[in-house]
Amino acid sequence: MTCFFNFYTLSLNNKNAEKVIITQENKMHPLSSTSIESLPNELLLPILEACAVPSLFSVCKRWHHLLATEIMPPLYKQIGKVHVPQENVKEQALIVDRIYKLEEKLSEAAKVNAVFRQIFTLAKSLSTLEFKWKTEEKRGLTLANYASYLLNINRLLLWKKLPGGEEYLSREEIKHLLLEKKGELLKDWIEENCKNITALDLSRAGLTYLPSEIGQLSQLQYLYLDQNQLTSLPAEIGQLSQLRRLQLDQNQLTSLPAEIGQLSQLQWLQLNQNQLTALPAEIGQLSKLHTLELNQNQLTTLPAEIGRLSQLERLELRENQLTALLTEIGQLSKLHALDLRENQLTALPAEIGQLPQLRTLYLNQNQLTALPTEIGQLSELLELYLNQNQLTALPTEIGQLSELLELYLNHNQLTALPAEIGQMSQLQGLYLNRNQLTALPAEIGQLSELLELYLNHNQLTALPAEIGQMSQLLKLYLNHNQLTVLPAEIGQMSKLQTLCLKQNQLTALPAEIGQLSKLQTLYLKQNQLTALPAEIGQLSKLQTLYLKQNQLTSLPAEIGQLSQLKGLYLNQNQLIALPAEIGQLSNLLQLNLKQNQLTALPPEIGQMSELQELDLDQNQLTALPPEIGQLSELQYLHLNQNQLTTLPAEIDQLSQLQELDLSQNHLTALLAEIGQLSELQILDLRENQLTALPAEIGLLSQLQRLKLNQNQLTVLPAEIGQLSNLKKLYLNLNQLTVLPAEIGRLSRLKKLGLAENPLKDIPERIRQRFQL
């Protein structure tokens, strides 16, 4: 409903309204009347200041309501139209919120206030005397004021970036001019001082509007406007007839002016990360353009005129909303790179094959279900990216891509490969992860230049013997398939460095595996291997061997010949013993034997002079050999869930040990030698049968965590108070009746667990500190 108000008198000064007489709503006075929609805000604000007068309280309350519901919302919408006149109200609001970084939950009235606060603050920073005179008028929340400030603030931001501009604006006779007066001088100043400028960097200049004066820079060749908040470009941009490069990344542009087509010398145009929904037909007039970047916009289609860009070499359209390509794309005869990743394409036009110079084609993350046969005409194509589409088959013409080096087909629905795949004589990388392949064609062996083959997460049950013909292959990934056997010919891959076969159904390895003399990584986790062939020892370059979650009961003595091995992972097998030859692994850094059935370790284990991590959790060890003390580089020793009743004295020689886990064993005492582990930070002794701790425990100066839960401790040594770095001490479920007062000295202690002990007395210092 439109509300009307009548005024007998309205007298304003710089502070407030001196006299306000307002008739009731809808009672028209013959002398004057105005609708709330047309009432200027500068009249409203002084009236609101009169709210301190009790007699006007009800009136002012009504004015507040009207301001919030009928004045500010239209003004907020008008501000949006200033920036993006062609968009709908919702889009306009989103753009305004982005420009001024406004929270969506704010009311429109609050947003208008926030916008003008930012505008006024910026205006004052650019013209210190801006609000010294006619304060109310210039601070009025009106569309006219907004438009004026928007124009002149951006004029000065531009001016400051021009050569000599900062110095000129600092002159005494200019510095004290009001903002509008300064802005009006820009045109003449550019005319006199900037005729020969060829490059201008306005990146991150804080621009929300590009003044039309930009068109005066007639000799400009390079213009950088990245990372501003521009929503549009002035028509005068078309006057930059010498411009060669224009960068507008990370703005808020929703459209381009038709005049963009007048930039006859333009070679490079970047418009990444804007809000463009369409391109003007005039884009096709940029006859010298060789690079056009439009990534991360909202384009749903391209104008047919884009086909007229006869010099275009690079076209980037990643992360838009394209559902189809026009046939005119085939007219871009000089195109080298086409990026269409993350769109909504369901098909490609046959004309895609008319791009004779195309070298790189990105089509990842679309909705393609098939490729046109014309794809085979791309005779210069080097890289083809088709990850994350819905392809169920490849055309036989794919084999005509004789120059192709990289083919990415991960995350599709391929069930088979055409035999013609073998014709790609230059192919170096073939990526087929996460498809539905059940077999490979024999012709795959013809890929004599292939370096990397990825086939993870398919349904392969066997490999063709011809796979051994890929003599240049360096990496072969076959994780998560259904392979039960490997062909003997796998040994012919003389250059293979990485072989990954995780989660298959292999029960044995062929003896020929030993011929892989260059192999560095062999990944066999989660198979059904019961033994390893003796030939495994011939892998003289092997550095990492993963055998976790198999059914191995023993290791061949030849395992000791793997002189370069650094990581050996045998956890979750059924090993009952280790061969003495394991001690020959002199370069081994990590040895994981967790969850086996080992009852003893060979003395030769002490020969692993470089070993840093040894995990023996969940075995059946009853003792450790004294030679364990020879592992001088050992940092982590895990012996959780074994049947140890004691430790060898030689454990004190582990001078680099940082973590020792002895939880869930049958230890009844700790040797005094434990105190020699000067680097120890974590000591876990949970669930043993300890009744006391040696005084030497206090020598562990680096100890940060000590777990003693579920033992039979009745007393703690006073020396525990010497653990100056201790942060966590767990003593739950013991038989402690008293605590030594020295625990109170542990200044870094943050956690103290005492639950379920028959404590009779806790020292006051400890009680207060831990609120016990």
Give the structure's gist in a few sentences.
Helices cover 16% and strands 12% of the residues.
**Could you describe the largest sheet, including whether it forms a barrel?**
25 strands, parallel
What level of helicity do the residues show? 10-25%
Rg computed from alpha carbons, rounded to a whole number of angstroms: 39 Å
- Average pLDDT rating: 91
Strand percent estimate: 5-15%
Number of alpha- plus pi-helical segments:
10
Cα shape: flat
Give the class from helix and strand content and strand pairing.
alpha/beta
How many strand units? 29
Give the CA-CA distance, first to last residue. 68 Å
Low-confidence spans: pLDDT under 50, at least 5 residues?
Answer: 1-39
List keywords for this structure.
Leucine-rich repeat, LRR (right-handed beta-alpha superhelix), 25-stranded parallel beta sheet, two-stranded antiparallel sheet
Can you tell me about this structure?
Among the domains are: 136 residues, no CATH class; 104 residues, Ribonuclease Inhibitor (Leucine-rich repeat, LRR (right-handed beta-alpha superhelix), Alpha-Beta Horseshoe), CATH 3.80.10; 106 residues, Ribonuclease Inhibitor (Leucine-rich repeat, LRR (right-handed beta-alpha superhelix), Alpha-Beta Horseshoe). The chain is built from 10 helices and 29 strands. The longest helix is centred in the N-terminal third of the chain and has 27 residues. The strands form 3 sheets. The chain has a 25-stranded parallel beta sheet, with no helix packed on it. A two-stranded antiparallel ribbon has the order 1-4. The protein has a two-stranded antiparallel sheet with strand order 2-3. The chain has 772 residues and is α/β, with parallel strands linked by helices. Helix 1 runs antiparallel to helix 2, helix 2 crosses helix 4 and helix 4 crosses helix 6.
